[in-house]
Amino acid sequence: MKKIVMKKRILSMVLIMSMIIMLLPDLVFHNKVYAASASDICQPSVFIKQSQGGTCTLASATMIIRRAAILQGDPDWESITEADVRKVAWNDGLSSDFIYKHNGISYRIKRGDLPRFSDENAANKSKLISLLNAHPEGIAIYRNFEPKHAVLLTDYTDGVFYCADPSKSKPEGRMNISNAFSVTTENAKRYWYLVTPKCILNSTAAFHDPDNFKVSFSRTLYYKSSVCCMSGDDVMYMQMCLKYLGYNIDPDGWYGSASASFVKSFQSDYRVSPVDGRCGSITWKAIEKAVNDAKQTGIVTSFNVSKKSPQVENTTIKLTASGGSKYKFYSECAGTRKLIQNVSTKKTCDWKPTKAGTYQLYADIMDSSGNLLASRKITYVITKPEFKATISAQYASPQNAGSTIKLKVKATGGTGTLKYKFYSECNGIRTKLWDYDTNSEYNWHATTVGTHTVYCDVMDSSGKTITCHLSYKIVKGTSFVVDLNANMNSGQYTGTEIKLKANSYNGKGTVKYKYYMEKGGTWTTLKNFSTQEYILWTPTEAGYYNLYVDAKDSNGSTACKRLCFTVESGTPLKIKSLTANPSSPTTDSLSS
Predict the structure, then answer these.
(1) Above 80 in pLDDT, residue 219?
(2) Angle 82-89/56-71 helices, nearest 10 degrees?
């Protein structure tokens, strides 16, 4: 009996030891955390394309595991393929939870849901940034409505989400998510992420450090087209070098139009000919020399802007340079050069462009003696504000029929002088209120009961027209109206004192009056709201006047009246004396 019990104990111990041995690789790897750089896990060769239509989620999950394997120090990460992961992860679609084993490490992937429908912009963005901070290997995000698609979200850098798109129609490598097919961080609903093992990114070897990612030059790099771009490790390395030298480039291994523009800037700054945006042997050697010189001297000159191009007119943009003791900032647009800040020790300045155009911004970086170390350049586009307009009413809807409501239009953008045309529509009938004029305000005397749509067409000097509108309800009621009269007829001379008097009807409680006038587009208040029913007005300039009175009763009902008045220049003719011949008195005579 004792022998049987002992055999059972020995057998149990053997089974336990066997399980420990089987789990030992996982335990060892889980306790040992490796660290690779962002450059290592963003090599173009890390990313793959989906094998067929409908496997974008599987390809994205495979890229997560490949990047995690690099971060775990697995030298055989390239053997992780979509076909191999499919064996454990695919069940008529990507499984919501699966485990993939490779070289003794168990990679556990789970699915989650994004809070898109609670707040499309803020909620998704906040959640994804948090996930990427915890998961440097990346997150697979999925748009689950047509056209359905998934991408690998790789990182959030300088306020931009980057991804790798498994679609064969998209370029290879890391790219701005705005270039991906269909899916965005706003419309994604599901995501897949790595639960275990824990991965850590070596933050000291970021995208801008080329030391850990050096490659040999073997071809000329140039921009082909947005459809067919050159890509590869050499592109990534060149971009990292430019980033190290202070250029605002985002390394992604893709030689697009932005890369060509930055290469052009480098060629211009470092006097490399020709300035053509092509990275051939001469430019390549100049880039490497500039990086080596910067490392040896410890001086890296840079020139940055606080806001990305383009911006609208009158936007304040902070310019910042570094790497010297003295700095000079200036701009050039359409052949005109303007000084922004003269030579000084201040490395920052504010630039507020007032005119649209394509600008070349320059920073001359000098040593303490004023000798030029480098002249850095940034191409910056300034645009006109969007041509748009809004219309508002002086008094809130609804108002009684017979009320006068002042309509006011606020427009921005457009070219030259703006003109405004007002019209309304009610019960299917459109009524023109006021034809095109430079006056952006109109006093609308509403008499028709119903829901009105009040429109204003705004036209600029080029003939471009935009429309804004306002819905306004007019209800039946006892009309509150006001009249405005003058004690003299129109056509008086300057310097003549004229009495303007208002009379209101059907007002409730105390009625107050406001008098104002318009002449040549200029508005002037003659007297603000008070209970005084009249004012004395003495015009000092000749011309055509629109005289107004606004009336407001205790219930908030309003009315308005306009009086047109012409004023002449000069002095009125006066009769000094009148005489009669013969002198008075006389006797009338009748003749027969």
Answers:
(1) yes
(2) 110
Compute CA distances 210 → 158, 213, 285, 291, 481, whole Å.
18, 5, 15, 9, 78
- Give the lowest-confidence range in 187-191, 298-302, 380-384: 298-302
pTM: 0.38
Inside any domain, residue 39 = yes
Contact by Cβ (8 Å): 176, 188: no
Look-up of token digits 């007019």 = 474
- Asked whether residue 226 falls in the same domain as residue 346, the answer is no
How far apart CA 223 and CA 342 sit, in angstroms, is 36
Q: What are phi and psi of 425, to 5 degrees?
A: -140, 130
* Burial zone of 560 (CB within 10 Å; 0-12 exposed, 13-18 middle, 19+ buried): buried
DSSP three-state, residue 282? helix
Select the more confidently predicted residue: 592 or 85: 85
**246 with 216, same domain?**
yes
**Are residues 57 and 182 in contact, defined by beta-carbon separation less than 8 angstroms?**
no
Separation between Cα atoms, residue 48 and residue 39, nearest integer Å: 16
- As a residue count, the chain comes to 592
Angstrom distance (rounded) from CA 566 to CA 255: 70
Task: Calculate the alpha carbon distances from 126 to 64, 184, 188, 232 in Å.
Answer: 20, 14, 13, 32
SS3 286: helix
State the average pLDDT over residues 113-126: 67
Q: Could you say which of 268, 297, 326 is where a domain stops?
A: 297
Dist. CA 222–CA 231, nearest whole Å: 10
The domain containing residue 419 runs over which residues?
A: 388-475
Q: Which of 489, 485, 516, 517 has the alpha carbon at shortest distance from 502?
A: 485
The residue type found at 197 is P
Count the domains in the chain. Answer: 5
Instruction: Output the six-digit token pair for 151.
Output: 């991408």
Is residue 225 scored above 50 in pLDDT?
yes
Q: How far is CA 448 from CA 81, 235, 364, 401, 457, in A?
A: 73, 69, 67, 6, 22
Distance CA 161, CA 66 (A): 20
Q: Tell which residue, 443, 299, 452, 430, has the closest CA to residue 376.
A: 299
Among 329, 354, 383, the domain-final residue is: 383
The CATH number covering residue 96 comes to 3.90.70
Establish if 16 belongs to a structural domain: no
| Residue partners of 39: CB distance under 8 A and separation at least 6 | 205, 206, 207, 209, 212, 213, 236, 240, 251
CB 223 within 8 A of CB 255: yes
